[in-house]
Amino acid sequence: MIRVLFVCLGNICRSPMAEAIFKDLVQKDGLSDQITVDSAGIGHWHTGSQPHEGTRKILDDHQISYEGLTARQVKETDWDDFDYIIAMDDKNINDLKSIREKNDVVVGKLLDYVPEVNETEVPDPYFTGNFEYVYELVSDGCRKLLEDIKENHQL
Ligand code: 4NP
């Protein structure tokens, strides 16, 4: 089993969007029994909340399910429970490094997988309000990440 955790600051906008999109891609590829997906936030503020309404609306527009997604905070055991911890921006990466480091876990940014795009970080729509642009970046990132995982694990 390959275990993927998406991380952002609040776990209500970007990382649940990534979780929902990535799950959808995994399902469409028939890989749900080989890849598990979750998301978490650096902060604890929104624990138990469903995704932000902007994330829900954009996922509804694209007919992608977010059923059952609720926010939680990153925890130290995530480094034991996941093979990939994929963050949205540089601050997330710094925060993750301050929580724990472990050699056999791939910790990276989603847009590292999309070098051709003009951004290296997924901007936070909680502050920008631009959920459509974030959707485009996150779905490109998820597609490329899945390709990378399939190649590296011969799926
Ligand atoms: P996210 O956006 O990290 O993409 O979920 C945020 C959501 C909430 C807050 C910050 C960012 N907040 O400060 O409450």
Tell me what the structure shows.
The structure is a single chain. By secondary structure, this protein is α/β, with parallel strands linked by helices. The chain has one domain: Response regulator (Rossmann fold, 3-Layer(aba) Sandwich), CATH 3.40.50. Helix content is 41%, strand content 14%. It contains six helices and four strands, in the order βαβααβαβαα. It has helices at 14-28, 53-61, 78-81, 90-99, 125-128, 131-152, and strands spanning 2-8, 35-41, 84-87, 106-109. It has a four-stranded parallel beta sheet. The radius of gyration is 14 Å and the shape is globular. The chain starts with a strand and ends with a helix. The model has no long low-confidence stretch (mean pLDDT 98). The structure holds 4-nitrophenyl phosphate. The site of 4-nitrophenyl phosphate has 10 residues, from loops.
Number of strands: 4
CA-CA gap between termini: 11 Å
Low-confidence runs: none
| Order of helical and strand elements | EHEHHEHEHH
Overall mean pLDDT? 98
Number of domains: 1
Per CATH, the superfamily is: Response regulator
Output the CATH topology: Rossmann fold
| Name of the level-1 CATH class | Alpha Beta
Shape: globular
Main sheet characteristics = 4 strands, parallel
Bound molecules: 4-nitrophenyl phosphate
Strand content: 5-15%
Q: Can you list the strand order of the major beta sheet? A: 2-1-3-4
Number of helices: 6
User: What Rg is obtained from the alpha carbons, in whole angstroms?
Assistant: 14 Å
Structural class: alpha/beta
Assigned CATH architecture: 3-Layer(aba) Sandwich
Helical content stands at 40-55%
